[in-house]
Amino acid sequence: MARPSRCRRICLEPEYDRFAPWGLREREEVLLTVDEFEAIRLIDYEKRTHAQCAQQMGISRTTVTEMYERARGKLADCIVNGKTLRISGGNYALCDGSAWPCCGKKCGRARRFAPQQGPIGKEVNHMKLAVTYENGNVFPHFGHTEQFKLYEIENGAIVNSQVLSTNGSGHGALAALLSAWQVDALICGGIGAGAQNALAEAGIQLYGGVTGSADEAAAALLAGTLLYQPDVHCNHHGHHDEGHRCGQEKHGCSGNGGSCH
Q1: Separation CA 27–CA 75 (nearest Å)
Q2: Is the pTM of the predicted complex or chain greater than 0.70?
Q3: What's the confidence (pLDDT) of residue 196?
Q4: Distances from the Cα of 7 to the Cαs of 33, 40, 57, 120, in angstroms?
C-alpha cells in the first residue's frame, strides 16, 4: 500500500492561475498544481536550493526534486506545444506563519514560532529541541560540536533538559544522531549545505546563525523572539560572514582549510 503524501506548505498562492498562447482559444490544457507552482517559485524565481525549498515546504528534498522536475516538464510542454497552462489543486496548505517560519522575505511572519502549534507530524504540544552546546552557549559550528543540549517541551514550556555527547560523530552523521533522538528542531551557529540537506531529509527544522546562551535561545524560540538567519551557511573558502564567529583553530574551522557541514 502506497504511503500517503505529506501535505506541502506553501507561502503564496499564485496571483495568476491561467496562461494561454496569444490568439489561441481552444487549446489542450495542462494542469500545474499549486504545490508544483510553489517549487518553481522557490527554486527558479527566488533561487533557493532544493534543500531550502524542502525545508520551507515541510517535505523531503527527494519529494521536492521529483515535484520540481514534473513541474518543469509541464511548463516545457506548454511552451513547446502551445498548450494552455492552468494552476489549480494539489496537496497543500497555506502557511499561516505560526508553527514554522515561512519565506523570511515577503511577510513579517518569518521570525515567529508558536509552540502551541507544534512541528509538523508531531503531537501538537510536544516536541524535542536540540542546541549545539559548549559551556552554556550555542556552539558556533554544527559539524564540530561535541555536545547537544536537548530540551523536551510540552504545552509551550520546557519540562526537561539534558546535555548529550555526540560520541565523536561529526558532519552528516550528526543529523542521523538527532533523528535517532527524535529531535524536531535544531538551534545552532554556522552550518554547511551538506548538513542542512541531511537535516531537511530527516524532517528537522533548522534555526541557524544563533549565538549566546543556549538556554536563552531555547526560551526565545518558544517566546517567538529568537533572532536567527533563515539562509545561514558556513563557508570557509572565502571571507567569514559578518557576525559569524569562525576563528577558533581548535575546532578545525580557521582559514581556508576549514569547513563546516
Answers
A1: 15
A2: no
A3: 86
A4: 13, 17, 9, 10
